[in-house]
Amino acid sequence: MMIDPLSVFILLLGAATPILFAALGELVAERAGVLNLGVEGMMITGALAGFAAAHASGSPALGFLAAAIAGAALSMTFAALTQFLLSNQVATGLALTLFGLGLTAMFGKPYEGMKAPAMMPGPLGLNWMIWLGIALVPLLWWFLARTRPGLILRAVGENHDAAHGLGYPVRRVRILAIGFGGALAGMGGAYISIATVLQWTEGMTAGAGWIALAIVVFAQWNPWGVLAGAWLFGGVTVLQLRLQAAGVAVPVQLLSMAPYLATIIVLVLISARQKFGRSGGAAAPASLGRPFHALK
Amino acid sequence: MFRLEPRASAPLAWQVATPILAVLATMIVGGGLFAAMGFDPLAAIRTIFWDPLFGPASGYSRPQLLVKAGPLILIACGLALGFRAGIWNIGAEGQYIIGAICGAAVALAAYPLDAFWIFPAMILAGAAGGWAWGMVPAVLRNWFGASEILVSLMLVYVAQRIAAWMAFGPMKNPEGFNFPGSRNLQQYDAAANPELIANSGLHWGGVAAVLALAATWFVMSRHVLGFHIRTAGAAPRAARFAGVRPERLVALCLGVSGALAGLAGLFEVAGPAGQITESFGSGYGFTAIIVAFLGRLHPLGILLAGLLMALTYIGGELAQMMLNLPAATVQVFQGMLLFFLLGFDILTRYRIRRRA
């Protein structure tokens, strides 16, 4: 069996892109102290909205724009519930995922069987979304580590009471971070429908949103780590598909477990390193998942 | 403007009122959604919530209520224990599938033997399978600190693929003309989980659900374990001082909820579903999360919430047939209901005051 490394790497970049977008968005939300488990719901909503817009306009770019808007719009439900009504973030995120899956199953029916318009090829034969995803990594790193708004966002995520005491608008920062996370999750989902599968099918994100959540933990809340994690999963996915295509004597259903099992293994390894390792690694933002309620 | 004042304890009246408010709000907004889609909202709501019980075809649909509510309640009982303690098993769907596979494996291995022990052995295997699948996230959390949320969820996707593999491979019916799917256990008397009272919809899963409700009530309100669970959820540090060992609680909650989900799967595969197929998982494991929350993690609430959710399933199917409503309507309804529930919950935890 011949596997050309360059073509595998190109496939890997494509397979990694949806997870890269979604995980970068979730990373920003989590650095602001918000745990949004609704990534899967926002991705599938983006996948449908993006596909519908791309199909109607014939422009993939407009599709991705619509997906970002749809993802952000859906995330505002989560923002309203967790930031104003102080609901439990775990439960609300789950609700967002269940709602998104239901909503898209309901409105997606007419789009089944249609084809997506062709993506515009970018430099080196890779499409622009792959490049945008990779470019977001240093940009977000720079934003979080080197800019004042990034510092405020991190302060809100580490200690919302102190940030509030210093006069920073905790709630506004978090709502913006949630919206940004929703927009990127939507674009990641749209990449699956517009650029990978080229059509819409119900439930097509198949757990990518949950894998993105695991990648953020794997990355220890660092954008570069997210890139490494997304490529790792892209690699596992491509390898698994290659083995399927090569007709290895393992049932297809078992091969297709690989990305999920790899997620568990990676999660265990990184958690063990945090628990037992001497260096420890970066911990989660201290206020992650905690509701903020100013008593004044 | 308004300000929120934390309550010292949640008043019972609001605890009861908020789920009801959430259901009403879901009906109103859902009706609006139907109207926007060009359906008659009143007819749709009546078809979903009223007709399955009292409509012209209710003779067929009423027994379905227990068929659907049984697994939901069984799973939600286990989930409620964990949710109380802040242990998030959201992979009940996977434990449900694995329980069904393990139970079916016993039956298929024994086929065509006719012996009294086969069904009890299946029950044990189903519970053990679900327990084992639930213990994976528990062990990984206790040993390595891995998030039980993500691990239990990933295992759902793994379980779905195992079910598909079983249906196409090891469990494929040798007399099934090469179609995927196992033998139908309904046609194998020693393994079947039949309706116990004609036209009631009650099978052994419903009986197990009632037992689970009683056990949950006893543990949560009459046993020291329930006290530990509630303390661990409300104040983890205080619980540690009170002698609660968090690792044991994690193993217990995930193990028990896994076993109950596995049982639900077993009763389903031996009863209403009949066989392991590629798409055996039908979402009960996720809907049960909503049931647990809607029932406020309380046995009585879970009973009512389970029946209501079962009603939306049946009503949704009816609305699909009668009014041509999309099949996913129920999913949207359930998601919306959970949103409203979480939103209205603020009324139980805070007092809303005019800002002075």
UniProtKB/TrEMBL annotation, chain A:
- Cite the Pfam families for this sequence: BPD_transp_2 (PF02653)
Keyword Metal-binding set for record: no
Q: Which UniProt keywords apply?
A: Cell membrane, Membrane, Transmembrane, Transmembrane helix
Record the organism: Paracoccus thiocyanatus
Transmembrane parts of this sequence = 32-54, 61-84, 90-108, 128-144, 175-198, 210-233, 245-270
Cell membrane as a keyword of this entry, yes or no, is yes
What taxonomic classification does the UniProt entry list for its organism? Bacteria, Pseudomonadati, Pseudomonadota, Alphaproteobacteria, Rhodobacterales
Q: GO terms for CC?
A: plasma membrane
How does the protein associate with the membrane?
Multi-pass membrane protein
Question: From the UniProt record, which GO molecular function terms apply?
Answer: transmembrane transporter activity
Q: What InterPro entries does the record tag this protein with?
A: ABC_transp_permease (IPR001851)
Protein's name according to its UniProt entry: Nucleoside ABC transporter membrane protein
Compartment(s) where it occurs, according to its Swiss-Prot or TrEMBL record? Cell membrane
Taxonomically, which superkingdom?
Bacteria
UniProtKB/TrEMBL annotation, chain B:
Topology with respect to the bilayer = Multi-pass membrane protein
Is Transmembrane among this UniProt entry's keywords? yes
Keyword Plastid listed: no
Gene Ontology, cellular component aspect: plasma membrane
Q: Per the UniProt record, which residue ranges are transmembrane?
A: 12-45, 65-83, 95-111, 117-140, 149-168, 202-220, 249-267, 279-295, 302-322, 328-347
Locations listed in the record: Cell membrane
Q: Which Pfam families match?
A: BPD_transp_2
Molecular function (GO) terms for this protein are: transmembrane transporter activity
Key words, A-Z:
Cell membrane, Membrane, Transmembrane, Transmembrane helix
PANTHER family named among the record's database cross-references: ABC TRANSPORTER, PERMEASE PROTEIN, GUANOSINE ABC TRANSPORTER PERMEASE PROTEIN NUPP
Q: What is the protein name given in its UniProt record?
A: Nucleoside ABC transporter membrane protein
- Species name for this entry? Paracoccus thiocyanatus
- Tell me the organism's taxonomic lineage: Bacteria, Pseudomonadati, Pseudomonadota, Alphaproteobacteria, Rhodobacterales
